[in-house]
Amino acid sequence: MVKQYISVILVSLISHSVFAQIDSTLFKRKPKADSGKMNIDAVYNRPFLQVGRTPLGIGGYAELNTNYGVTDGISEGLSFQMRRMTLFLGGSLHSKIKFMSEIEFEDGTKEINIEFAALDFQFDNFFNFRGGIVVNPIGAFNQNHDGPKWEFIDRPISATQLLPATFSNVGMGIYGKKYTKQWVLAYEAYLTNGFDETIIDNEFSRTSLSAAKANKDRFEESSNGKPLFTGKVAIRNRKIGELGLSYMGGIYNKFQDDGFVLAPKRALNVFAIDFNTVLKKTKTTITAEWAWINVDLPSSYAVQYGSKQNGGFVDVVQPVFKKPIIGFSNSTFYVSCRLERVDWNTGKFIETSTKMYDETFSIMPALSWRPISSTVIRLNYRRQKQRDFLGNPPANIGIIQFGVSSYF
Q: Both ends of the chain: CA-CA distance in Å?
């Protein structure tokens, strides 16, 4: 540990000495993110600082917020949270070869993850190759997850707890676009390492794809030697919006070891649809995503482990006031609302043919102010109801949050 601290101090001193002698024009701001691009562009659709005349670009974003929650009348008080700080580093090695990386520090340094680190070989608009740590393109949020792009402090429940956003894997694949007048067709297809049996053997006592994120070994090797396939097709009309259809599936269990068969192969299949648009007359932004999960479960598993799950969210964001304020020429205020629903188990009890529950419903109104487009100050209130597996009266949860998120 002492050597690590000494190394950090030396690097800091050297960096300070070097940069103190460099002209302030060393870093130049690249164009800001363009909200009109497609979700496939999210990895590059970010503001960067370019280092002099080098091909290197750097950037990132940070999120800070407060939490005050009450569950059935009981509160644990007010707390502060440094949700995450994310760093981007990339560059063009050639006009047709690019590298991009995304490193995320969550809750201080409680978790440090490489969410994206891949080489892109761009042969043509419609055919390109990508290899490295890629973000699986299931739904839209998993790729387009940067905090400053959203008016809400919490990420969607369906994207982070039903689906495992942000979910990355080592692998490779192809992607591309085709332009025709007002239409743009885009696709992505990847083979990566996949899930393991923690999706049905975890602390949550339910089927949970997000539990597999704890398995860091997926960045080194496959849990069973069978690749996970993730594919997406999206179409965008410049006047209507973007519609995406995606699929993720593969074998999740370890079915053999050294040639000996241990169990039957068990598959999971995930289907998702997403849509976003901006109503030209009112400038209202609507973003929606829904996912369906099917998991082949062993017959010995208890009924609270669902073989079928589904859920999604709808965001409505309305600008209400745009006027220069205290030196911010494009200052804009927004009123927004998010509706969410997740059903962790869509089955029925065999004995009684009655519905299994384990559901979550949430509504989240929000007020936000963007002094500049890349920085947002947010006030959110979440009203949430959770019903357990047996359908007992729901737990009533209320959470109020205030926070800020910004690219840098």
A: 30
State both tokens at 232. 């997406």
Name every residue whose Cβ is closer than 8 Å to that of residue 84 and which is 6 or more positions away in sequence: 62, 63, 104, 105, 106, 107, 147
Distance CA(103)–CA(142), nearest Å, equals 15
Strands 284-295 and 228-237: unpaired
List Cα–Cα distances, 132 to 119, 136, 169, 219, in angstroms: 6, 12, 8, 10
Nearest to 253 by CA among 285, 281, 225, 287: 225
Q: Which of 283, 280, 310 is nearest to 295 (CA)?
A: 310
DSSP 8-state assignment for residue 397 = E
Token pair belonging to 389: 């597996």
pLDDT, averaged in runs of 10, over the chain (408 residues): 38 36 48 67 90 84 97 94 95 92 91 94 95 97 96 97 95 96 96 96 92 90 95 96 98 90 94 97 97 95 91 98 94 98 88 86 98 97 93 92 97
State the pTM of this model. 0.88
List strand residue ranges (DSSP E) for 156-197, in order: 168-180, 183-192
Structural domains of the chain sorted by starting position, each given as residue range(s) with its CATH number in brackets:
65-85+133-407 (2.40.160)
